[in-house]
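Action item from last meeting closed. Structure (312 res):
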């Protein structure tokens, strides 16, 4: 039995460096790096990040589990060439969740202390002062209260913001008001000064933030999306910003990545862009790969197995 590591993202993590980490927990397992070029019946589990290349399935007749190194599994679940008989698991990193919460806090504080305006004013040598907004009067609405959304909500709560969250199932998290359903979403949006999207891309969440839904936002609201780009309809977001339905947006995720050079987001004065970097380090959960390999062998419950019907 063997494990295949086929990451194809050397800027982030090479196959060899991941193998070195995982080998320490699986000293007696033959770990194979890189795309297979001939049939390998011994491979029962394969790791990947970003996009899974289904063309390698022809070489892996006994593959039982695909492990995403990262959290989002939308691309693999949406691929019609990926068989439903192969199980999928993801990662759930406390370290990455905190990084993403810090990213959101940095953005909100940059707006709240007018840093973005001062950056523009400096170019004009313009000495204009703006009063900072008072944190205790600001309301944060978090879309998605999973591993990451919950951490985001709790960090803002710690800093004195009022915090609400929206999820599929109702939550009981101290100090955080929980909303569910369509009506709950509209209510939460209507009083949020900052709306933070940290939802997976699924049938139900794709295009959720469209022109109609944007009408529920406060015109002074700022939208931050760190989950998946499919959450928002790009043209509707641009229209909302152009017509004053929404004040500004910070986007870390996009429908197409890298964001195409001719995309209107790049030049929009009310949009701040980062290249899918809000969460980076997952090293605290890298050993889940080894754990899942052993659990698969022993027919035990897998860590963070994806529910294919729900899509996350
Ligand atoms: P989780 O699976 O832990 O949480 C998902 C949350 O979304 C849950 O609260 C879930 O509700 C909620 N949700 C899902 N579908 C719906 C729906 N239809 N209506 C309302 N709420 C819904 O995921 P994570 O928090 O770990 O990650 C979220 C996403 O963030 C990932 O799927 C990935 O796409 C993205 N991501 C982006 C990164 C980046 O660098 N920008 C890095 C890591 C992840 P419930 O709790 O009721 O199930």
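Sequence:
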């Amino acid at each position: 039995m063997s494990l295949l590591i086929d990451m194809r993202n050397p800027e982030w993590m090479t196959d060899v460096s991941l193998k070195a980490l995982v080998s320490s927990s699986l000293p007696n397992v033959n770990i194979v790096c890189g795309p297979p070029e001939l049939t390998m019946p011994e491979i029962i589990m394969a790791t990947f990040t970003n996009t899974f290349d289904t063309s390698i399935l022809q070489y892996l007749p006994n593959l039982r589990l695909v492990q995403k190194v990262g959290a989002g599994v939308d691309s693999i679940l949406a691929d019609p060439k990926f068989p439903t008989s192969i199980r999928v698991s993801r990662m759930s990193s406390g370290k990455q969740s905190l990084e993403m919460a810090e990213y959101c806090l940095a953005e909100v504080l940059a707006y709240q202390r007018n840093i973005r305006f001062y950056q523009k004013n400096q170019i004009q040598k313009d000495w204009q002062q703006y009063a900072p907004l008072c944190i205790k009067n600001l309301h944060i609405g978090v879309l998605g209260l999973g591993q990451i959304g919950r951490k985001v909500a709790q960090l803002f709560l710690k800093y004195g913001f009022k915090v609400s969250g929206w999820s599929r199932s109702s939550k009981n998290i101290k100090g955080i008001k929980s909303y569910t359903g369509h009506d709950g979403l509209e209510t939460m949006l209507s009083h949020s000064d900052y709306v933070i999207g940290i939802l997976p891309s699924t049938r139900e969440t794709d295009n959720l933030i469209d022109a109609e839904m944007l009408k529920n936002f406060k015109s002074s609201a700022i939208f931050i999306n760190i989950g998946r780009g499919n959450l928002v309809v790009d043209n509707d977001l641009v229209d909302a910003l152009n017509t004053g339905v929404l004040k500004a947006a910070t986007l870390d995720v996009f429908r197409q990545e890298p964001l195409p050079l001719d995309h209107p987001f790049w030049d929009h004065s009310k949009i701040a862009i980062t290249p899918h970097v809000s969460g980076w380090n997952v090293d605290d959960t890298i050993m889940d790969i080894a754990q899942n390999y052993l659990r698969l062998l022993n027919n035990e419950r897998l860590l963070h197995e994806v529910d294919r019907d729900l899509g996350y």
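Note appended to the action item: The chain has nine helices and twelve strands.
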